[in-house]
Amino acid sequence: MSELASESSAVGTITIAPPSNAEVVKAPPLRPQNRQFAILAILVVVAIPLPLILPAAQGAVAVRILIFLLMAVGWNIMSGFGGMFSFGHAAYFGLGAYTSAYLLVKHNVSPWIGMLAGMAVAAAVAVVIGYFSFRYKLQGAYFALATFAFAEMLRLIVTSSAFANKSVGYSVPLIQGSSLWQIQFPADSPAYFWVALFLAGAAVAISIGFLHSRAGRYVTAIRDDELAAASLGAPVLRHKLMTVALSAAITAVAGAFYTQYYLFVNPDLGFGSAISIQAIVPVVIGGIGTVWGPVVGAIIIGSLTDVTATLLRTPPGFLDFLQGRSGLDVVLYAVLVILIVRLLPKGIVGTLAARWRR
Q1: What is the pLDDT, as a whole number, of residue 29?
Q2: Within 272-316, where are the H helices?
Q3: What values do phi and psi take at 102, rounded to 5?
């Protein structure tokens, strides 16, 4: 008994020394998607007061940047993450714009519901186009030409279709006062920016979630080596169709909001090749296949559009010959893309990320 008592007393006096600095367990770092979600949340919070600070003209530019961002995110999911280069995203933009406008003008359906309908229509059409393109093994330039041809075909069909009001298009009827349900506010209202910010933020969040999901990992594996992914059992066709559907749906949101913001859409504005270019250029400049490339590219392109418009309106004395001319923005786009491709082939974000990893 005395031995047990001495042992218990000894045990009772045992002290545990604190671990040394080398033994301190550190909290695991944030997962990449959580870090990206946190950055997105900070950017959205910082952007919220912008329309209250900016002049009305600059507020309109900010809304245009967010529309570019929606289009760029949609294109990047399909062509950046999925590696399926599209030159016909105007098809999905126009489907979203026309579906929303038709339901509002003809049936007085809220643009929010019209936006959802446009997403469904664009996704369904994208799946059909994608299925036949992949069924007949269209890849690379052939796939890009097929998407361009389909967008042009839709433009011609809408231009000659009485159902879509032919070349006249649709004008959104004005309402009295403000209505979030109808997405109509006074021209200088910051509410347009906040709605666009919500849509763009949601699109970037979906992009982050998709990239880091199991489906996203399949998609990037298929992009890098389709044969190897298929040999390992990856359902190639299903994930390709999922990617084009998601890409088309996000692009359709941009079209629906564009129509509601500018209160008008016609075949050239909805399905014109310029729309596809406006979806591609921001991603090429920012960085194809990156989460933040579309964000950076949209800010640059949107700001550049405003600068060129101002320059053409009131050029300095030595550039008087530019006054009233059009097309300067396209020239600057071309020069900027050439410089980016030559100097930063992975885009701004892609190049910076590659150098950071070294």
Answers
A1: 55
A2: 273-286, 293-313
A3: -65, -45
